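Incident log entry.

Two folding requests arrived from the same account within the same minute. Monitoring flagged them as a possible duplicate submission, but the sequences differ. Recording both here for audit purposes.

Request one:
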Amino acid sequence: MGIKTACVVLGLACGLVSPAHASAAPACGVDLAAPEIARAVGTLPPYPGTDWAWSAEYASGNFDRCATLSTALVSVAGATGSSPIAALMFHDGDYLGTATSRSFGFTSLNTARTTDDTVVLNYKTPGACNACPPAAVTSVRYRWQGDHVEMLDPAPPS
């Protein structure tokens, strides 16, 4: 058995592919500049009733192409603090859609309660002023259920 055959049979890396031609697997870990986020943003229609386009420029969240479930929170181009935020959901880096059918201002990731297969989002509770940070929040859990995401708590208040 030749060296090349032995390397293939044993699964050894014998330097047969030059580093310039090898394609590295995407890295695991939070990556808010990932091209997957920009591609997902590109599929979103403008914010309803406006011509406001979504932007991945200031994404937040925990997008991780190796996580069972993760999210990227994006807002409209030129956003202010109270602008709508869309929660893009991902399974193993694949875009699934948005967490809710409408977007809410002051949406944030609850990192303390989020796990590999569960994303917890905090939504501003209505009743406070529109342009100030929330006085109270409603937390909503989203969990990966083998082939889909399930919202485990009532939808955020409108």
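Request two (distinct sequence, not a duplicate):
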Amino acid sequence: MITCPGIAADLTDFAVAYWNGHKVIYAYLRHDGSGRLDNEFELDERLFDQWYTELHGWSVDPHFKVL
């Protein structure tokens, strides 16, 4: 997973994952298009199933951004 502070994996158009130094944090992006983080969430089985296509696409062609 991500090991560089300040770097996030663009999992979907609206959610990212990053390493906070202790664990992976999943967060939604703000709706205003600023790229800033909004709320954190747990990537549970329900969300994984719902976002399977996006997450699979990311695993094939991963994208990252600087927070």
